[in-house]
Amino acid sequence: MEESKKKSGLSTASMVLGIIAICMCFIPILNYVSIILSILSIIFGIIGIVKNAERGKAIAGFVLGIISIIIVYNMYFAVGKALQDVGDAIDDATGVSSSSSTNSNQTKQIAMDEIITGKDVEVKIESADFSQKVEPPKKPTFYNYYQVDDSSNTYLYIVLDCKNISTIDLDASSVANVTVKYNNNYTYSSFSAIPDDSLGFTYTSLTRIKPLTSQKIYYLAEMPKSIADETDTPVEIQIKVDNTTYICKYR
């Protein structure tokens, strides 16, 4: 009888924690606590399902826990992307204004495998490819990815291997500003994301790169799919590090 009560108690706890988590996941700051409660709700729910103790409550807690985690990460993911877009816009505006100053931007041609050395970072293009759906290298059970909303568009996603050569933590969002130039006339800006073993992707604005460690950063530029289908029209990847823009011929 006592064993049965313990099993039932776990199922009830799973449902209660799931309800609390789903209520807290919409509240900033508190939704961090919601993640912990969601994880406990999922664990207790799994135990309740396996032990066949009040399976209805266990399943409800399990599902609520998963939904809470998805909501929290999607919220912060969206906020991070918005912050990144604002940062990119500010960088673009700063770049335009600085062109008239004495420290005007310089340009340099580089190869795909060439290392870019800045004041605080070493950057190298690890890969670049067209795809309408960009997935992380590791895919956990629940993960996010990027897919174009318009089927007539595609991403050119560039993976940079970035090493912090400074003596302090480096803000991942400040490593580089990447754009893509098509046919010497059309320029497409990009947004960045960090591959994460648990989430799939997370945002650069809350990621710090420790001294003498490397971090892969994805830069995604959305453009018409017809660009990917062509083979003879030039496409350039432009990587701005510090006051120098490095131009790499992709095609």
Q: Outline of this structure?
A:
The chain has 251 residues and is of the alpha+beta class. 37% of the residues lie in helices and 33% in strands.
How are the SSEs placed, and which strands pair?
Layout: H1 2-24, H2 30-50, H3 55-98, E1 106-110, E2 115-117, E3 121-131, E4 133-134, E5 146-147, E6 153-164, E7 170-171, E8 177-182, E9 186-189, E10 191-196, E11 200-202, E12 208-209, E13 214-224, H4 225-229, E14 235-241, E15 244-249
Parallel strand pairs: 1-15
Antiparallel strand pairs: 2-3, 3-6, 4-5, 6-13, 7-12, 8-9, 8-14, 10-11, 10-13, 14-15
Q: What is the H/E order?
A: HHHEEEEEEEEEEEEEHEE
Q: Any idea of the CATH class of the largest domain? A: Mainly Beta
Low-confidence stretches: 96-103
Helix and strand composition category:
alpha+beta
Neighbour order of strands in the largest sheet: 2-3-6-13-10-11
Annotation, overall tally of beta strands: 15
> Shape from CA axes?
elongated
